[in-house]
Amino acid sequence: MNASTIAAASLAAVIVCAAGPLVARETPAAGAQFLVAQAATPARTPDVIFVPTPQQVVDEMLKIAAVKKGDVLYDLGSGDGRIVITAAKRFGVRGTGIDIDPQRIAEANENAKKEGVTQLVTFKNTDLFTADFRDATVVTLYLLPRLNVKLRPKLLNELKNGTRIVSHAFDMGDWQPEKHVKVDGRDVYFWTVNDLARKKFGQASTDHK
Ligand SMILES: C[S@@+](CC[C@H](N)C(=O)[O-])C[C@H]1O[C@@H](n2cnc3c(N)ncnc32)[C@H](O)[C@@H]1O
Predict the structure, then answer these.
(1) Ligand 1 atom having least distance to the Cα of 81
(2) Does 107 sit in the ligand 1 pocket, CB within 6 Å?
(3) Which residue has the higher pLDDT, 75 or 203?
(4) What confidence tens digit (pLDDT) does each residue in 166-184 have?
(5) In angstroms, what is the span from residue 183 Cα to ligand 1's centroid?
(6) I need a surface site. Which of 32, 71, 122, 193 has the fewest CB within 10 A?
(7) What is the DSSP secondary structure assignment for residue 177, as one 8-state letter?
(8) DSSP letter at 95?
């Protein structure tokens, strides 16, 4: 993604966020029910705005992580749910999306319904930095460089050895990826959790870009 594309996508997302999602709420009043519009706002400001991963890159992320039936996939900052939903549709994989923005969770649930995978996927409206995803066998990310590095100790200390991690666009600072490919000009990075990485990078780092 070049700078102008990011800027354009970011601007669009900011405008959407500023407008605020409208959620229909039933309010009993004098024997009648009225629908009122209420803004569903995140518990705190998201660390990064919603910019979706293109489908071609989603496909490559799942390929590089060799996602297969039996995996348990988490997308941290799951947006409209496309990574979790694609994994469920293509591989019958159970997945959880975590997003701090309730509007994204509503969209993801709607998309899961449309794609017929509600029995395989769950979307949780919570902060990825405090979420429990220890049962993951695959974790996917599209965040920011400094967020990846901030998240690194949690990933390394809480995930089992062998858990695969894939990141669209951004690396993990000085934790070198095992694989790095380009898809349509975009970077996809791949790591696996292991004792050596835990020992070297399991502490909070000042390596924030
Ligand atoms: C760049 S989008 C990526 C969406 C999706 N993973 C994809 O690749 O298409 C980042 C997402 O992270 C969410 N987010 C930002 N800060 C978060 C936090 N602290 N906890 C959970 N989600 C967060 C945003 O709401 C947004 O939907």
Answers:
(1) 5
(2) no
(3) 75
(4) 999 999 999 999 999 999 9
(5) 21
(6) 32
(7) -
(8) E
